[in-house]
Design goal:
heterodimer; A: five-stranded antiparallel beta sheet; 9 strands; 28% strand; globular; B: 131 residues; alpha+beta
């Protein structure tokens, strides 16, 4: 993805989905707080639960556990994508879509951290009509989608390569290592 | 148990264009500084679309689909492209809010379905391209 194309879609989405950033109060003593500059997402680690990181943006806070720090470079664009594209209200797609589910986002992010490596290509995060979310990677003629639908519908991945004509789709569960290798292949 | 799928409505011809609004947060970068819909646009079990033939009968222009939805763009897919996926029948929808041109593409949407729709879609009212 070229920088100019990235900025094109960033510009388009930011016009319609400007995110109000809510700064949370001073963190407790011995805690730390910082802001991901590009996305204005505030993240806080607490002294009493050092394993927990709270990402704060808009009117929501996402508690994630076991997230390695310092953050790899892909974290910032992913959080930015998430902020800009969040389906805020029911009907955000003009057809009655459900608001983006915090639970689905947590599951997606919790899986992304062990899937991604430091120099992995950051995915775009797309809201789905059922409240779920989908991470999308596009690299040359290849595409990978990792969808976490809402409710009891299991997560799936879909990979395609327009040069070889290969398309594969399966449950994410049981294919973690394979999906990780697909993500790895998108930067070679 | 999943609902039974309705019969495919063959009065909607293969060449008929099916219009779908696309919100800005479901756009992704395409080729040559363009943007295109994400496959996520098409991943819903009951995909709402408006059939061009039915709109024409009512003397409605395609851009009427965007009336009241200023932050969306209009994409079209051909009914024939949808019918390549036999588990995704097209049926008119009479449920409220009633619109005689409103149709639903039923069935589970696979990754292949989403990719095919992205590949074959055309913009009717496109998002702006950027320099």
């Amino acid at each position: 993805m070229s920088t100019s194309t990235q900025s094109a879609y960033d510009s388009t989405t930011s016009q319609a989905f400007s995110t109000k950033i809510k700064k949370i109060g001073r963190p407790p003593a011995a805690s730390s707080a910082d802001v991901l500059a590009r996305s204005n997402v505030l993240y806080v680690t607490s002294a009493d639960q050092p394993n927990r990181i709270t990402f704060s943006f808009g009117n929501r806070k996402l508690d994630l556990y076991g997230i390695p720090q310092p953050f790899d470079p892909w974290v910032e664009p992913v959080m930015e994508s998430l902020c800009k594209r969040w389906g805020e209200e029911k009907g955000w797609d003009s057809y009655g879509a459900e608001p983006t589910s915090e639970e689905c986002v947590k599951v997606l992010l919790t899986n992304l951290f062990p899937l991604m490596q430091r120099d992995s290509l950051p995915p775009i995060i797309i809201p789905l009509a059922d409240g779920g979310v989908q991470a999308e990677w596009h690299y040359k003629e290849q595409a990978l989608e990792l969808a976490f639908p809402a409710g009891d519908v299991p997560a799936t991945y879909f990979y395609s390569n327009d040069i070889t004509g290969l398309e594969e789709e399966d449950l994410f569960k049981g294919n973690f290592g394979h999906v990780r290798s697909l993500i790895e292949s998108l930067r070679k | 148990m999943a609902d039974a799928l309705p019969a495919d409505d063959l009065s909607i011809l293969d060449e008929d264009r099916l219009f779908r609004r696309v919100p800005a947060n479901q756009l992704v970068p395409g080729d040559d500084r363009t943007v295109r819909p994400s496959s996520g646009v098409y991943k819903t079990d009951k995909l709402s679309v408006y059939a061009e033939s039915l709109m024409s009968e009512q003397k409605r222009a395609p851009n009427e689909c965007l009336k009241d939805y200023p932050d969306t763009y209009l994409s079209a897919i051909k009914a024939g492209s949808v019918r390549k996926f036999i588990d995704c029948p097209i049926a008119k929808d009479n449920a409220p809010p009633e619109d005689p041109a409103h149709c639903l593409i039923h069935g589970k949407k696979t990754g292949s379905f989403g990719k095919a729709m992205v590949r074959e879609h055309e913009w009717v009212i496109a998002p702006p391209t950027q320099d």
